[in-house]
Design brief:
The chain has about 120 residues and is mainly β. The chain contains no helices and nine strands. Strands 1, 2, 4, 7 and 9 form a five-stranded antiparallel β-sheet that branches. It has a four-stranded antiparallel β-sheet with strand order 3-8-5-6, with no helix packed on it. A hairpin with an 8-residue loop joins strand 5 and strand 6. The radius of gyration is 14 Å and the shape is globular.
Length: about 120
C-alpha cells in the first residue's frame, strides 16, 4: 500500500520562500530535489510571488537544464499575490535524483513557496 507524506520543498529552509537569485540557467536556484528511490513519486506544488513593481518572467527547469526539454516559463505579475506555477506535477524517483531549479529575468524579486506530497510504494 502506498504512503503519502507532505514535505517542504527541499530548497526551502523551514518552509520559508525560496528566493530566485539567478537570471540564467548557470545561476538557477535549486527549488526541490526529487527522491533517489525509483518507486517514489514527488507531487510538487509551487507558487510564485513577485515583489517588484514590474512583471517578471520566471523559468522553471523541470528535471533538466536543457532548454525546451524541461523549461516551464511564466510571467509573474507585479505585486499581485501568489500564482500557482506548478500544479501538482510529478517527478519519479531516480538513482540520479531529478532537480527542479528556477531563474528569472530579474534577480531577487521572485519568491517561490510550496510543498511536496511524497508518495512511496
Amino acid at each position: 500500500m502506498a504512503t503519502f507524506s507532505k514535505q517542504i520543498l527541499s530548497g526551502s529552509t523551514d518552509g520559508k520562500a525560496v528566493k530566485v537569485t539567478g537570471t540564467g540557467t548557470a545561476g538557477a536556484v535549486t527549488v526541490h530535489t526529487g527522491s533517489s528511490t525509483a518507486t517514489t513519486l514527488d507531487e510538487i506544488w509551487i507558487y510564485a510571488n513577485n515583489t517588484s513593481a514590474s512583471d517578471v518572467k520566471l523559468t522553471i527547469e523541470w528535471g533538466t537544464a536543457t532548454a525546451a526539454d524541461g523549461n516551464i516559463e511564466y510571467t509573474v505579475k507585479a505585486e499581485n499575490g501568489l500564482y500557482l506555477i506548478i500544479p501538482g506535477l510529478i517527478l519519479k524517483g531516480n538513482a540520479t535524483p531529478l532537480v527542479v531549479k528556477a531563474f528569472a529575468a530579474t534577480a531577487d524579486v521572485i519568491l517561490l513557496t510550496g510543498y511536496v506530497n511524497r508518495i512511496t510504494a
